[in-house]
Amino acid sequence: MNPPVATSEKQSFKLAAEARHVADARERVVSIAEPFVDEERIASLRLVMSEVLTNAVRHGAPGADMLVAVTPKPEFLCVQVTDQGDGFAPRPRASAPDEDGGFGLFLIEQLTRRWGLTRERGNTRVWFEFDLDAGGAGVQTL
User: Fold this and answer.
1) What is d(CA 142, CA 135) in angstroms, rounded to the nearest whole number?
2) What span, in angstroms and rounded, lies between the C-alpha atoms of 62 and 17?
3) CATH says 11-131 is which class?
């Protein structure tokens, strides 16, 4: 993958929906986000990305690609992860993890401005808005 360029334009990339690519995709998103997101929020972004990407691998079509898109907005970062699976029923929970999963959606709910899931044409897209800082300072024009 080519290194990302600091821009307020949408940046996207594809990768195989395999567990071995989750860390690389997460760090690619973080490197796109670093010019915009406060340093103390980067750890939360890493956690949210890990959860969303892992769900795409777990619930997506085996051997298919994922599309990751990152768009800096004035007050938040918009991130979309699209896979070729049927998706899952989004149910954030604060209880103990079980055989179907753990706290991932609960963490996404707590760490993002808002999030959602859409299904269309055989694809599932999980999107979220991530505040750039606790005070909503916004994107700086480059």
Assistant:
1) 20
2) 7
3) alpha beta
Query: Which one, of 25, 66, 67, lies nearest residue 48 by Cα?
Result: 25
Q: Which SS3 state, helix, strand or coil, does residue 109 take?
A: helix
What pTM, to 2 d.p., does this model score? 0.82
Q: With H, G, I as helix, E, B as strand and everything else as coil, classify residue 16.
A: strand
pLDDT digits 0-9 by tens, 62-97: 889 999 999 999 999 999 999 998 765 555 554 445
Residue 2: both structure tokens together: 């080519």
Alpha-carbon span 94 to 108, nearest angstrom: 12
- Contact between residue 107 and residue 51 where contact means Cβ atoms under 8 Å apart: yes
Q: For residue 28, report the phi and psi dihedrals to the nearest 5 degrees.
A: -65, -45
Residue 108's Cβ-side half-sphere holds a number of Cα atoms within 13 Å equal to: 24
Domain limits, the chain: 11-131
Residue 122 DSSP label: T
What does the DSSP 8-state code read for residue 101?
B
Task: Give the residue among 136, 123, 132, 4 at the shortest CA–CA distance from 72.
Answer: 132
